[in-house]
Fold each of these.
Amino acid sequence: MKQKLSHLWGRDGTKSVLASLISIVIGMAVGALIVVLVGLLNPSMGPSTMWEGVRLVFGGLFSTGRDAAGQLTFGFNSTNLGNMLFRATPLILTGLSVAVAYKTGLFNIGAPGQYLMGTAATLILALSIPSETVPPALIWLIAFLGGIAAGAIWGCIPGLVKAYLNINEVLACIMTNWIAANLVTWLFDKGSLFEHLQNTVENTKTAYIYKTSFNGVETSKMGLDLIFPNSQVNGGIIIAIVIAIAMYILMNKTTLGYQLKACGANRHAARYAGISDKRNIVLSMAIAGGLSGAAASLYYLSGNTEFFWSTYQTLPAIGFNGIPVALLAVSNPIGVVFTGCFMSMLDIVGLQLTNLTAYNEYITDVIIAVIVYLSAFSLVIKLAISGGHGRKKRAAELTAADAASPPPGGESPDAGNPTAEKGGEEA
């Protein structure tokens, strides 16, 4: 048993998980410290307010509000938990997008642009196909696959210039991000081909596209609304988890996954071994783009969110948020599911801090920043974790070597053994 535990502790995957957990714990602790410091610097906040802030940092997901006496209460909050799963869905998929590309030695910072192209394709298909003549379920499937295809095609662009022109994919991704932002703006702008998709029913809305619920095209709840009533949750989280499992199988159990990772480890060695490095670079970026497009599809096919089409001023944060999700999960597809949920939980915690205390939600942004910063130093944390274990292992190896070697000035254990000498001669 001890030997098994020692073997488990020595595995690189175990150290990576522990490094991520340490990053999370330190980040949460820093968030709690900031809550205390802000409380101390603000005369209007007393110790009780600071304690409430600390409690919400660690348990805001389970906060149920305040009781009649004004005290914070905690328990099963179906609304918070359901909304957390809803918000986690696009985070998981954009995290997978970054993780898959990273496994192939590429840094996909183009997820925002791929996300926007997936958004445009999904909404155009979902809202343009008449649901009176075509079953809404079929429209949903067409829109979902269309979003994936649009993201994949947009992801191919930096992959192609990287593979055939050796242009850094980060530069190519940044350029394609802004091209996508302005292209999508043009597609939905006044006078464009898809101007009719702008929301004119709700007079308070300007520069918004219709929800897919206006066309009756929505993602099925799959019974999750019974578990998490009064929330935005739908079956998109289940689809995201299935996709994450599929990515894990692809990357770890298939020949294609081995080839992709081989190109990431050493592109030139992979080519020498007969693997087409150019094809795999393009394919990796296409898969990454498709995952970002899927994130947009599931988010807007939920039927309860609207798309603000004036995107040229800023890029969607959800695309960039996939980077810390992938970093914290050490690019493991299964780990991305949990880190996506964790990042989504911090969003809910920020809202709880804003609604229930005098603090604001930006404290959770600090927590995320600290976690991401520590994730970037995961190798240092892993070395610190393995330091003691490595020293013990080396000491054990030296002890074993000393026991096997003859004493100084002594004879070999086989000295004077004719059988050993005979065996040596025969050898």
Amino acid sequence: MNMKLISRDFYLRQLEAVRDIPDIKVITGIRRCGKSSLMDAFSARIAGEAGVNVVRINLNLKRNIELRQPESLYEYVESRYRKDLKNYLFIDEVQMCQGFEEIISSIHEESIYDIYLTGSNAFLLSSDLATLFGGRVFEISIFPFSFAEYLQYHDSSDPDGSFDSYVRDGGMSGSYLYRTYENAMKYVKAIYETTIAKDIIKKFRVQNEDMLLRIGNFLMDNVGSLTSIRNVAAKLISAAVDTNDKTAGAYIRYFCQSFLFYPVRRYDIRGKRYLEADCKYYLADLSFRFAVIGNKDPDYGHLYENLVAIELLRRGYEVYVGKLYQKEVDFVALKQGQRMYIQVSDNISGPETLKRELAPLLAIRDAYPKFLIARTRHDTADCDGVQVVDIARWLAGSQK
């Protein structure tokens, strides 16, 4: 069965926006989230235009095995250059060429190609990109399928009917090919295990794999909860694991650098300052949680919070956890000088629950938009100036 392809227009627009800008464009994201397919789609779009020359190389293919040698890759790219055309270079799995950094930097220095790359997260970590290419990099981060893309893939126009399935199935689209949920989760778990083995253990020379897995399980079990590195270390020590704050913090950082988790810092709304203590960590996709630790005591309020956090990041917002006196606002989202406040809940059908969820938002005195996102199954309503929005409809909405 072949994978069904959908047009990921949101990311194609991002690539188009930086086209011909003299930076090396690097597409990053969790393993198997569609980096290569996105590059295929964008390179094919450009190749269909007049006056262009597209050089497309996938170093993962056996027919390109000779190009894994740096001199061979350089000579091949140079030989395909056309002086009378606009030239574009797309290389997939660039890390398979040993010494790719020097080759790509040299080609970039010559200013003869507009360059686009994908590669293993173990070699193209966000934190390493500036060092690899001398700071001349523009990163395009992509995520697993959004709910809107999930609906598009499944030809569904019913957000209400598809939402619960999306929470369970997640956005790792390769899993959609499997006929049973059990096999789909085996596929997702295999991605998680490969990421652990290749993007974390191998890259960072991790010595204690058992502790790494325990920390991963802890973070998955506590998405949406404030997490202190000191408390994580204490939890491990109480389970007779020999560790300390420094090691636990490093392992958590590795999970984030491999795009499995995204850290969200705290922001003091009243004092307008960022707080260093404690973070929340959100999974790149909820399917990893179900595949690795199963349906163990799911707190759907926190799972929905995870969906909203990743969707905000996907839409290009800076995301923070808001603190106002003793109250917490789930998210402060910033983009282009604008701000919005968001509270997330699984169920606000009871008046006391609704009152409790609205309280942190109503305590904020500025005029920025405020949203309560919950599983209402109704159209958006206004409640004392707060927009009460159904989570399925919000996730299915346009990505701005």
Amino acid sequence: MSLLSFGRSESPEEKTPDPQVEAFLQDYSIEVMPRTAEKIVDFRSLLPQHTRVYIAHIEGTPIEDMVATAKRIAGEGFAVIPHFPARIIKDEATLADWIARYQGEAGVDQALLLAGGVTTPHGDYNSSMELLQSGLFDKAGFGHLHVAGHPEGNKDIDPDGGDQNVMDALRWKQQFRDTTDAKMALATQFAFEAGPIIAWADAIKEAGIDIPIHIGIAGPAKLQTLIKFAIACGVGPSLKVLQKRAMDMTKLLLPYEPNEYPRYQLWGSVFKQNGRRPALRG
């Protein structure tokens, strides 16, 4: 008798879709890197038309590869949102060049601005706020400028584990949104429990921050790979959900899937009460 059964399983029972889950999944986005995008022959075979596609810019990735990926995916009919990590952008001339390339070669008019996972800045910029202050995105006519949200905090910004600096930054971005014509959204770090995101959404609402939220959820992946990237990205306490699962050797053979997220509580609880529907980003 084998330890694990690999036989054909019975057909799953057909279930009626949950309207709240369907609503939560509307207008979802995905995130790719140039090297992973190369493995996809045609995104149109996987995604609904006009899906938003974030393109992650990892340190060391040539801008030429980023722009080529943006051009290819935009050419297939998708709304492309490249990352602009402040700390790997050398100076204003480099930032202007990147914007011009994305706009001129790929027709991009949206961006995700973030500090980036680099400890020491490569040049003049240290934060997404400094990128916004440059005025270059407004000058180029970028209509949507997304920024990062951290439901479980960010020790790179608040080394003491608190949230003072993160909240100050959110208030600054709220004021920027309110005093400009920029259309903004908070693209959150991914987490593995609904609770921390619900609590964070309540907290920023009470602080007067009403920028729309795009919730980050990790897609299907090997458990070991997901833990590795979660640690690298600074995922907070909800990482324990994965680490607990990893203690079960049988589950190490199976991929983590986002449908294990606690029943999409995110829609039915705080967000519905707050009167704003979150978008989903994976």
Amino acid sequence: MRITDIKTFPSVEGRRQFLVKVETDEGIYGWGEGGLSTRDLAIEGAVKHYREWLIGKDPMRMGALWQEMYRSQYFEGGRVLSSAISAIDIALHDIVGKALGVPVYQLLGGKHRDYVPCFATTSFGSGEQLLERVRLLLEHQWNVIRIVLSQPPTDDPDLFEPWESIPFTAKHVAAVREAVGPEPVLGVEYHHRLSVAEAASFCQRMPRGTIDFLEEPIRDECPEAYEALRSMVDVPFAIGEEFASKWQFLPYIERGITNYARVDVCNVGGLTEAKKVAGWAEAHYIDLMPHNPLGPVCTAATIHLAAAVPNFSWLEVRVSPTEGSTYNWEAYPVQPTLEGSRFPVPDTPGLGIEVNEELASSLSFKGWEFPHLHRRDGSHTNW
């Protein structure tokens, strides 16, 4: 079997989804997805560079092709190249699973669990709204809930002031914990918008035991900054969704900085690289808590990863009673389906995903940006 074409689809609607289809001379094809939302054209360009020499290669040699994609250039790595490699690698796993007649998790070592537990996400504009949304999730059997940071209402949607957000978010999250009791797992997502001092202050403003994890409180470029924060607070950290290789995970795992590995199969280098990160994390008693903000192809690939590793906590999903859906469902006639707050592990060959290629091809590319946030003094800050 040989690769005959690699097609790109940078415009699937909903939250931006960048898809790749790898085709072979035996009629078997695979779907993959790349991360790095809003920079789809950059990923597409990288995939097209890889396509030039991947045509004619044997798709069954997934690991060797990963190494060739990563190492056959002087400027290796980086998020753009890693996202492109991720999309191709996921598609190759889909092909090999179909060719062998087995689900992808069999290629990763076999199934550890029959279903994949998930967590829901909710945001809020007021304390009353937050408590109402958390109670709605609990009523629907979502017992692991991530709360997105908030701040007092403002007329400027692109304004973010940390010292206005910190007391507001801390106060209302603490009130939720008091109202719902100790049983639900509650976490807070701060989307790397804080400094070390700000993140420490946020944690210290809540009674001990209020939250079970704090996700991405600061940016990841400096592990030493995270180590300083680690020494100031006793809340478990969930870090890693921005990491584009096992090497970026290295200090966070080896130095005990993260407690949940937020591996993203569409950014880290696909299933080939994610499985290596999982084994490394297992050796340090760290569970995976995968990042999954994209589309059903990413979800399907991550379900197979979650099924094939022993050290797993919860999978992020973008569908819940308070979130609705960010997917264009028509584009995915076959896709994973939630049963309550969990995904059953599929037994169909490959990923168990199908894409409406005609619809995906008909969508023209439209530029889209995440918010460009600023502070009151006009300076720019992290989204």
